[in-house]
Amino acid sequence: MLDSYQDLIDGLTQTPTALRALLGNPVPDTVGEDARALLAELCAREKVEVRRIQTVMRDRRARLRSIQYEPELEQPGADLAPEAMLTDFNHERSELVSLLVNLTLRDWDQKVDHDEKGEITLADEIDDHLTWDEEMQERFEAAMG
Description:
Radius of gyration: 15 Å
Number of domains: 1
CATH architecture: Up-down Bundle
Strand content: 5-15%
Largest sheet: 3 strands, mixed
C-alpha cells in the first residue's frame, strides 16, 4: 500500500521535468496561445489542488465538490509570461508534494465526502489529480506540435 502512495508522489514529481523538457528552459514568450492557455489552466488547477488537500487535512469532515466547479478554475488568467506561469506551477507542485510526503498511512486512507463521487479517500483525490496531470501533458504535446 505504501508503494502505491509513493508511486503517486513519484508521478507528480515527474511532471515539472517533463514540462520543462517540452516547453524549454526558459519557456519562450513566443509559445502559442494554446500552450499559454494550458499553462494558465495548469497553474490554476494546481493551486486549487493544494488548497483542497490543505482543507481536508485541516477539517476531517471536509466536503469536496467536483474540481471543475471550483471557482478559481472558471477564469484562469494567462496574463503572466509563460516562464512565470511554469515557475508558479512548479512552486505549487512543490507545495503539494511537500504536503503528501508528510502524510501518514491513515491520512492517505482518510475518507472524504465528494459531491459527485460519494465517499472517496485522499489517495483517490491524488490519483485523480495525477490522471489529469498525465492528460495535460498530452495536451501540451499536441499544442507544441
